[in-house]
Amino acid sequence: MNTITRLVVCLVLTTILSSLQAQTKALDSIRKVEVDSKIILLEKSKTEIESEERGLLKSKISKINSQLDNKEITAEEAEALKKEAAKTAVLNIENRKDILDKKIALLQRNGYNSNIVIDDSDTGFTLSIGGNEEVSDSFIYLGKSSGDKKRKYDRRTSTDIVFAFGFNNALIEGEQIDDSPYKIGGSGFIELGYAWKTRIFDNTNFWRLKYGFSFQWNKLNIKNNQYLVNTDGAISLQEFPSDVNKVKFRTTNLVFPMHLEFGPSEKIEKDDYFRYSTHKKFKIGLGGYAGVNLGNMQKIKYKLDGDREKDKQRDEFEVSEFVYGLSGYVSLGDVALYVKYDLNPLFKDQLVDQNNISVGLRFDMD
């Protein structure tokens, strides 16, 4: 059964990763169409520059000729004015084309990312997902273009939604993980939180501080027909009096993680602002967390006299009220290998020391 469970978990993880990759490709395709359209418009504008400047030059020369006919200026002055107007037109054409070439180069270099922006200039309606730098600093914005958050020239702090899940178990003093009374495949954890990421130094984004809050749900699936028993505050595993189908113990924590994150990033420079991007970059985060336990529950499913029974015991176990531990992650892009380990004991008064440990995948949606 454990082998089947592991295979199912691996299949689920593979499916989720494939789905995320497909979504990223779809978003990249949408963004590519948008950027390509902008480039086409800029190229078209380049072809119109010469005709516009020639039209302006023609108007200036006509005005100079009128001044000459009216004897307001001499022939020598008229010739000098015409040469100056022609020189200005040539410089305008060169400078305007250079500006458009730089805009095209910026789009080609930095524009192809997975952010989505829908901007209807006729209605003034804007939908922005992912904090698109062309529009604003807001991660998600829906409404009028004029109502969006003003962009800062240098934004040192960004925000992320954090989601993690994976395997959960306990390291028990004097025992190997294979001898754990908790099922490896059936025990798991989920973490959902919100994080801020701040650049530490002014001129480099290699070192970042990541901090926030998270809810953690740690589940232990107890094996060998055992269940947790509270005997005058002492927590121990004992044989259940009848055959059990499933015994689960879950703790719910609110923690405040903090990690020192480091790794390369790309500097994106625009006319009126600049940003550092870690999109699809290798990064490492090392740190820890501290918080409080919000509750615990043991659920027992068993048969009694042929009938299926289910018992739930809430907050009947002396778990540690203060939760603290070490955690770290290694990621390439938005998906990371994530490990967290509780330094606090699982129970206040436990006959054998045991500490919760989790290994899984972490998604930082920045």
* Largest beta sheet: strand ordering: 4-5-6-9-12-14-15-16
- Provide the domain count: 3
Poorly predicted runs: 1-5, 118-123, 133-139
What is the beta-strand fraction?
35-45%
Distance between the termini: 38 Å
Strand-pairing-aware structural class: alpha+beta
How does this model look, in words?
The protein is of the alpha+beta class and 366 residues long. The protein folds into three domains: 1-113; 115-151, no CATH class; 155-365. The chain is 28% helix and 44% strand. The protein has two helices and 16 strands. The protein has an eight-stranded antiparallel barrel with strand order 4-5-6-9-12-14-15-16. Helix 1 (2-69) packs antiparallel against helix 2 (75-110). The protein starts with a helix and ends with a strand. 21% of the residues are buried. Residues 1-5, 118-123 and 133-139 have low confidence and may be disordered.
List the helices and strands and how they pair.
Elements: H1 2-69, H2 75-110, E1 116-120, E2 125-129, E3 140-144, E4 157-172, E5 188-199, E6 207-222, E7 226-231, E8 234-239, E9 244-262, E10 266-269, E11 274-277, E12 282-304, E13 307-314, E14 322-332, E15 335-342, E16 354-365
Antiparallel strand pairs: 1-2, 2-3, 4-5, 4-16, 5-6, 6-9, 7-8, 9-12, 10-11, 12-13, 12-14, 14-15, 15-16
How is this structure best summarized?
This protein has helices at residues 2-69, 75-110; strands at 116-120, 125-129, 140-144, 157-172, 188-199, 207-222, 226-231, 234-239, 244-262, 266-269, 274-277, 282-304, 307-314, 322-332, 335-342, 354-365.
